[in-house]
Design brief:
Layout: H1 10-17, E1 29-36, E2 39-47, E3 62-63, H2 69-81, E4 101-102, E5 108-109, H3 113-117, H4 127-131, H5 138-147, H6 163-177, H7 181-190, H8 214-217, E6 221-223, E7 232-234, H9 243-246, E8 249-250, H10 252-263, H11 278-284, E9 289-290, E10 302-307, E11 312-316, E12 320-329, E13 332-339, E14 345-350, H12 357-371, E15 377-380, H13 383-397, H14 412-416, H15 419-432, H16 439-442, E16 449-451, E17 457-461, E18 469-475, E19 483-490, E20 506-509
Helix pairs in contact: 2-6, 2-7
Length: 512
């Protein structure tokens, strides 16, 4: 990956470094990093990761628990891409011991691989049970499946977070490949991606960490029952058949690299389809199963939230789409979160459970995005969209009839409103805004673009003396594209074009 692309301003760095000064923290240590697609931009470590006086560095190893699930999903998608797994096949096709759901009449209703991957299998949430069963043996997991599972919802209908469902995905990887899940993940994915400080067991680290040796570089987990007055060290929960659901140990740097690789699927300049294609990585970061009201993810600016594949996907009214996932085990808490379009993100580790890690990364990331003025999305217009906007803009600024652009119109445009009617409306609107600025004051169209909902649509400012006028057009999808809607209209005072749409935070770009 390239070097870090962004430079954080000094005032923002100061704000990040002092962020937790006013927070009543009850953690032995907290460590977070801000990153972009090029790497870590800033790190801050607080406290002691072994209660021995040493503060955490970017290379300190923490257990990331359920953040492991996106790694599991990527392994299954690799096999789908190779033609070895069909996501719409019943799970029992690949794991015969898996019990299908039966309705009230006893009719079997197959649970598909996709349902497990998108947390809508009908299996109930099982976090408390799973925390103490990460080390379960494969044969014991198969025995549990053979004895039957209880379903609390009809398969495919609603969101429920099932750890045992992810464990079954691990079995699918093993049964299809004939290899242990961890071996497949490390050789087919972690190694090729350069995630050399990411392993499923503490014993797999050799000579890593801030002090050079794995035992010294791995954070210990702790619990408190008296608000941090005393700490109880927690042994590492074992690594077994549920490893794919929550066993990974990693560093801030490696998780930043993992998150950047996932978000790079949305980078128009990226052409890397090795390991796993961009199309598959994008599937992981879009909503497949809606999540109902849940105080773990709610906030005033949240428009939609749902489970993707191994990731929670949030659509925010200001910033657009975020992907994120938390992790929690006795002694550890974590969250990784990134802005899908820009790839700017935050990852945060603690070595105790029950912390507000998802809330903290949300607040930190929103502060970073605001501090560097990141739009919700950057949309590169079609060349035809840009050219159409330029022609309409030139006609308006030249006080010509809109009919000058008729060769670009879809047949409906002048049928919806004749040219003379449109011209009269435009004249009245512009005169009411104090008239057009002189040609030398108008500025380039590129500098007057306001927002866009897609490459086929754009809104831009018309340079009037009192402001408040904008152009808006939409293109058809047929080739060659034609203008199907064009309006010169009153703009909202904030220049957004439509305060009810988050699209006014979508930044249009004219292609070079």
């Amino acid at each position: 990956m390239p070097g870090a692309q962004l430079e954080l301003p000094d005032d923002l760095i100061h704000r990040l470094d002092t962020w937790f000064d006013a927070v009543d923290l009850h953690v032995p240590s907290l460590s977070f990093a801000v990153f972009d697609r090029g790497g870590v931009l800033h790190h801050r470590g607080i406290g002691e990761f072994r209660l021995d006086g040493r503060g955490p560095s970017v290379g300190t190893i923490y257990r990331i628990a359920s953040m492991s699930k996106s790694f599991c999903i990527a392994c299954v998608l690799i096999l789908e891409e190779r033609g070895q797994v069909d996501l719409d096949e019943p799970v029992s096709t690949y794991v015969p011991e898996f019990p299908d759901f039966a309705d009230t009449h006893g009719t079997p209703v197959p649970v598909t691989v996709r349902m497990l991957m998108t947390n809508c299998s009908g299996l109930p949430e099982d976090n408390a049970w799973a925390d103490f069963h990460l080390g379960i043996a494969r044969r014991e997991l198969l025995s549990l499946l053979s004895r039957g599972l209880r379903y609390s919802e009809f398969p495919g209908c609603s969101y429920q977070y099932s750890n045992i469902g992810f464990a079954v995905l691990g079995l699918i990887v093993e049964n299809v490949t004939g290899r242990p899940f961890i071996e497949f993940a490390e050789t087919e994915m972690l190694g090729p991606l350069g995630l050399s400080h990411t392993h499923y067991s503490a014993s797999d680290f050799h000579g890593e960490g801030p002090d050079g040796g794995a035992p010294e570089g791995i954070a210990h987990g702790y619990s408190t029952f008296d608000s941090g007055a005393t700490w109880l060290e927690r042994p590492f929960v074992g690594t077994g058949a549920l490893a794919c659901a929550g066993s990974i140990f990693s560093t801030l740097g490696d998780i930043a690299r993992w998150s950047a690789w996932l978000s790079s699927a949305f980078d128009p300049g990226n052409v890397d389809d090795s390991v796993l294609s961009r199309a598959q990585r994008r599937r992981m970061q879009r909503i497949h199963t809606a999540i109902a009201a849940d105080d773990r993810v709610q906030r005033p600016t949240l428009l939609n939230v749902g489970y993707g594949m191994g990731l929670i996907v949030e659509q925010d009214s200001r910033f657009g789409t975020f992907a994120q996932h938390s992790g929690g085990l006795p002694g550890f808490g974590s969250n990784m979160r990134w802005h899908v379009d820009s790839g700017v993100g935050v990852v945060l580790f603690t070595n105790t459970e029950g912390q507000k890690t998802a809330r903290w990364t949300m607040e930190l990331l929103e502060a970073v995005l605001s501090g560097i003025d990141v739009p919700a999305r950057e949309i590169t217009l079609w060349p035809e969209t840009a050219q159409a906007a330029r022609r309409v803009d030139e006609a308006v600024l030249g006080r010509a009839s809109i009919a000058e652009c008729a060769d670009l119109f879809s047949p409906n445009v002048l049928s919806d409103a004749p040219a003379d009617v449109r011209d009269a409306r435009i004249h009245k609107l512009i005169e009411g805004a104090g008239g057009l600025l002189d040609a030398g004051e108008a500025g380039r169209l590129e500098d007057r673009l306001s927002w866009s909902a897609s490459a086929a649509q754009v809104v831009w400012r018309i340079p009037c003396r009192n402001g408040g006028v904008q152009g808006r057009l939409e293109m058809t999808e047929v080739s060659p594209p034609r203008i199907q809607r064009v309006e010169i209209e009153k703009a909202f005072e904030d220049g957004s074009g439509d305060p009810d749409l988050m699209t006014h935070h979508f930044r249009p770009l004219i292609p070079r």
